[in-house]
Amino acid sequence: MTATAVVPEHPEVTLRRAVAADAEAVAEVYLRSYDAALPTVVRPHTDDAVRAYIRDVVVPGRETWVAEADGAVVGLMVLADEEISQLYLHPDWRGRGIGDRFVALAKERAPRGLSLWTFQVNEPAHRFYERHGFRAVEHTDGSGNEEREPDVRYEWRPFS
Fold it and tell me: Angle CA(54)–CA(87)–CA(11) in degrees, nearest 5?
């Protein structure tokens, strides 16, 4: 299974928990999405290190969800309690409602509220999360993340 897929006209997209066999495809979606969405942000780890981390830590040890279409992984979301720690879509699959479905799932899994971090340069992510009721609650200079990139923390609370 690979992250690269020909996009059919109207594929059925299924959200499901990731399994070990998905790790390579999850890593490829992450790498392609990160590079497309954040071209100015330097990744602190090599592609191989990212693949190993996703294979050895993320998929087996975290609540990892995938979006699958026609047998290919086209998106991923990782939840850590009440935090969306990762949400990435293959660049060819953006704008198809998959991110909306992931956020709805995250809200269902954490009904008391959610938080997440995104980089300040990622304006499309800001618009996406704000559309889903998240509010920016903290801005940093990036000294607390590996990329050393200014970031912003968003929160969603169901009745705020």
Answer: 100
Task: Give the integer Cα–Cα distance in Å for 20 and 54.
Answer: 10
The parts of the chain modelled with pLDDT lower than 70 are: 1-10, 160
pTM above 0.85, yes or no: yes
Where do the domains of the chain lie, and which CATH numbers do they carry? 13-112 (3.40.630.30)
Q: Tell whether the torsion through CA atoms of 144, 147, 151 and 157 is positive or negative.
A: negative
List the Cα angle 122/126/132 in 5-degree steps: 145
Rounded Cα distance between 142 and 120, Å, is 9
DSSP codes of every residue in 15-67: EEE--GGGHHHHHHHHHHHHHHH-TTSPPSS-HHHHHHHIIIIIHHHSEEEEE
